[in-house]
Amino acid sequence: MSFLIRAAFWLSLVILILPADQETTADSAKLSTTEALIAAQATLKDFTSFCSRQPDVCAAGEVALDNFSAKARYGAKQLYMYLDGEDAAQPSAENELAMNETMANQKEFEQENKAIDALIRSAD
Q1: Buried/exposed code over 21-56 (b: 16+ C-beta within 10 A; e: otherwise)
Q2: Cα–Cα distance measured from residue 16 to residue 35, given in angstroms and rounded to the nearest whole number
Q3: C-alpha to C-alpha distance for 52 and 56, rounded to whole angstroms
Q4: 119: closest CA among 63, 55, 24?
Q5: SS3 41
Q6: Where residue 13 falls among pLDDT bands split at 50, 70, 90?
């Protein structure tokens, strides 16, 4: 997750440095560098406290990211096996283990989510 945040930060920084076309840039859209930095700092401050305000959303995002990365690894391995000429239709023990682990993580998240919902209902 931190990789995505860092990548988005550096990509945004590169885009900020690039020159803009003067004909397509509106005069009302002008923003000073100082104003942009202040806005970026406020956004970052709000973003870093998001998980403390919404822990269930962060947990769901973590599980979704884990599932996505497991699928991406599996797809990349299948593509590699296809391009290498191996029979990609035969699931390997490693692939089955990764998919079983993903399913177990999903079930664990659902159980945790139910427990959090029950705590929230009991607190109300």
Answers
A1: eeeeeeeeeeeeeeeeeeeeeeeeeeeeeeeeeeee
A2: 13
A3: 9
A4: 55
A5: helix
A6: confident
